[in-house]
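I am writing to request your help with a piece of structural work I have in hand. What I wish to show you is a protein chain and, alongside it, a tokenised description of its three-dimensional fold. Could you please explain, in whatever detail you think fit, how the structure tokens follow from the sequence? You will find the record immediately after this paragraph.
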Amino acid sequence: MARITASVYTSHVPAIGAALDLGKSDEPYWKRVFDGYVFSKQWMRENKPDVIFLVYNDHANAFSLELIPTFAIGTAAEYEIADEGWGPRPVPKVIGHPELASHIAQSVIQDDFDLTIVNKMPVDHGLTVPLSLMCGQPQAWPCPVIPFAVNVVQYPVPSGRRCFNLGRAIGKAVASYDEPLNVHIWGTGGMSHQLQGPRAGLINAEWDNRFLDRLIAEPAALSQMPHIEYVREAGSEGIELVMWLIARGAMSDNAPRVRHRFFHVPASNTAVGHLILEEQ
């Protein structure tokens, strides 16, 4: 049977991708960010999964205001890199795993979660920046990736409770797949940041670190947090953190092993958070 052996959580700030692509990762401002992922890249080399299930949000590249799926699973064999207005990032295209993705879709939909099935879509920085942070700049990504897009851009957005329970359904689906695959599930986005309005630039480091504490130790209780608290305490874009609850919900009820924890402010105008949790 397939099994989820670890979960990874990281911010997906677009400026991080630009800094890497433009060769600025050793500049003093950015070096402090990238130093937080040195362990992570080595861990990835030593714990390479067969498949990554990557939870992220699209930034109006695959989906527009004309069509906004709450949850969308990519079932294609490959995904092109989106042009976000300044050309596609110079990173490898993403190879999918249609068989496992289709199995997860079948299982999760039968568990009463409505997913949108996507057979063709470009993937943007929400997905490629986490891959770059964890894998560096390879000629090809180390394994297939299943993109799982969540709407946290246009209200109404899904609750943390629904995301956590969806994660449980995804974990169940993976466990029922009849090949011995080692699967990692990643939750991306966040942490506290606001990009517009009178609170633009908001960062709440104390709240962010408490979120990390609770994500590790009490995720079910954390999932009950109402969306208005994310917005009030972590800024309008802080709601992206509900995607981390999908990844955490997919893990077992056993206390995870914390392999790495990193927090840094600022990266561009965002607080960067990062965790690697392993199943015991």
Residues 160-175 form the longest helix (16 residues).
